[in-house]
Amino acid sequence: MASKWETANQQSGPAARDPPRRSTQDDRLGFHRPTIESTLFQLHVFRAAISTPSTKARTSPSTSGSSSSSSSCLANGGDESAWDYEEIILERGSSGLGFSISGGTDNPHIGDDPAICLTKIIPGGAAAIDGRMKINDVILKVNDVSVVNVPHSAAVEALKRAGNLVRLSVRRRRQPRSPRIVEIELCKGNKGLGFSIAGGSGNQHIPGDNGIYITKIMDGGAAQVDGRLAVGDKLILVRNLPLMTEKNLENVSHEDAVSALKCTSDRVVLVVAKTDAPLAPMQVVGQPPTTTLLQQTPLLSQSAVNLTTHHSHQPPSPNPGLAPLDVSGAYDPIEIPGALQVSTPRAVSEEDIARTPRSVVLSKGTTGLGFNIVGGEDGEGIFISFILAGGPADVSGQLRRGDQILSVNGHDLKHATHEQAALTLKGAGNTVTLCVQYRPEEYNRFEAKVHELKQQMMTGTLMRTSQKRSLYVRALFDYDPNKDDGLPSRGLFFRYGDILHVTNASDDEWWQARRVLATGEEEGIGIIPSKKRWERKLRARDRTVKFQGKSPTQDRQSTLERKKKNFIFSRKFPFVKSREDQSEEGSDQEPSAMTPSESDSTSLKEEAVFSYESVQQIEMTYTRPIIILGPLKDRINDDLISEFPEKFGSCVPHTTRPKRDYEVDQRDYHFVASREQMEADIQNHLFIEAGQYNENLYGTSVASVREVAEKQGKHCILDVSGNAIKRLQVAQLYPIAIFIKPKSVEAIMEWNKRMTEDQARKTYDRAMKLEQEFGEYFTAVVQGDTPEEIYAKVKEVIREQSGPTVWVPAKDKL
């Protein structure tokens, strides 16, 4: 029944969709409902969960026509978990509070429910400006006066007598939240994926839902190290890298899900549905199977009681004791000064926020503006990442996480850096006009960064980012973050040769980086050890190694003596088996006239330490030469030319020996007229490598390699030492240098059945010394169990590194 303060036909908006009342007598009599209006702005607001009022509503049976939908304001319908509670303070002013009510014991609004419901919000009034009250909100208290189970007139009187500051205790039906779909890449460690799952068709974890859910995160597992996966997350799909095979986990059995997850590779992408609200305990069905995804661990089963003990449906909550920070940097949250870095549940649903730009006016208070920002790197935009409880942003109810700030008081921030945005916000004055746009999809890119920084704040290991540096590097070692005990936050897995975009290299110990794919796209984000930290760690390890034989000093002296005696470069000639090659064939014999090779030196110099190489991307205008080092190189070189003669070739060498009758100049050799001329060309760096045999000089010139690379358009196969790699780089003929790294002496013997153990050991030692001396110049390091596997990997490296754009050493060194 309507009050005589507002005609029934004035009701509009969502109230018009309410179920029909039992009687229309009030409409016929033209009675009015009370209208309480105000155009004044609210003075203050407290967002706090409140307990159920001490004066409980009577349970009244509703009629068959009553509604229990989310749009209903039934005070007694459903369980308490279906309701959100809120306390709001409004300032009345001279024109009221700005909303209409209906209901009461003498005039139920819906069925027999006596709740006092909000039926209309007056545009421009205090309630509309405040923005948090909604149609169908149930008013429980006005100041300290309960309006539960009271006549309509009593509620009206309580509102009239409430004074200028009116504290309203309200509740509303909790709106279901749409899940966010995110992709999370995990790198398996010794402890596997490190989480438990439950659910599946026939074993539903949630009634009516065949989904696979995360029920526990194991300490030390990949999921815990990564930090983004949470209890309650729903697994949608699992994808193996780098093969990109996928398994959809929707509507599959529990056993199929377990099998798909156990058969994953070292790098796994999980497509996950995340919900902000925890699942209600009543949703857990009895004894679903729960599987723990640990490496080499039997499947574990848990009852529903165990799941509750694990708090399986409670997502990690923000730390309420987190002290505010004021830092700057590419991905550091800027805290516009406020109290706690905790965001309370928002009253605004995702459907309420338009995706078009909108204007929001905030007035700074003692807590500043009350939100945090992320972004500002590479023109990606500035996004709101946290709404601080009780601050102006929270009070207004008009901002939410995922809003991109387009401008502040007319100052364009669409392409601003993080520092520029922070300074603009801090200097914006007391009244700040924001132009924002809700872009949740774009904001999801920052989820990993935000989590990482929260972890760093909690552990006190936030990187110093006041002087950011961004660069591209090539990794010269393999890195598994699961094996790094000192890692302060989520690490980034990478292999030797991977290109990394270091987005922040300002810290002495840890850098922030992404992996760069062959397509040029970037994936993953995490912490990696800095150049300084990694090299210090390796040197500390190497100091524990005890060398035998000649001292490093003696070896360096002997090497210098050889350099003084021989102006020539170290050379292993194509027409003579080198010492390494002879060992592969089972013989220790080598040509007596062979010039000693630096790479064959027995030097035990202090081991070089490799970390990262600064690189730049260039466009190839030629076909890159190929240098393969290590065991099997001759076999692989021959196989490449035999299988792909149209793609691979060899260059014509130079020599000072006289031409024989059957030889053709520039086909068999470039015959040099005099030794003096060739010596001068060598000293002028026109040769990538040269040597002496039977008093004659032989060598491979830069011009010969360029002839094959540019004019013939083929990969020039070069049988040279590691020294030639750097000389080709200087000549801007960047080779694809591949090192075949044997796994063991036994592996070498398996590759060549004729080789003795002693010969295999010498070959293995030479390979290790090659890596030590030239490791920083290798494009890739290839390992395998069989020659066929290694050959296939070599061809794949060549395919990936053939252009048209490639990463090459940069002029600026780290």
Question: Could you explain how this protein is built, in words?
Answer:
- The protein has 814 residues and is an alpha+beta fold.
- Among the domains are: 83-173, Roll (Pdz3 Domain); 180-274, PDZ domain (Pdz3 Domain, Roll), CATH 2.30.42; 358-457, Pdz3 Domain; 471-539, Roll (SH3 type barrels); 620-809, Rossmann fold (3-Layer(aba) Sandwich).
- The chain contains 20 helices and 36 strands.
- The strands form 7 sheets. Strands 1, 2, 3, 4, 5, 6 and 7 form a 7-stranded antiparallel sheet that branches. Strands 8, 9, 10, 11, 12, 13 and 14 form a 7-stranded antiparallel sheet that branches.
- A hairpin with a 2-residue loop joins β31 and β32 (696-701).
- α18 (745-751) packs across α19.
- The longest helix is centred in the last third of the chain and has 18 residues, at 757-774.
- The chain is elongated.
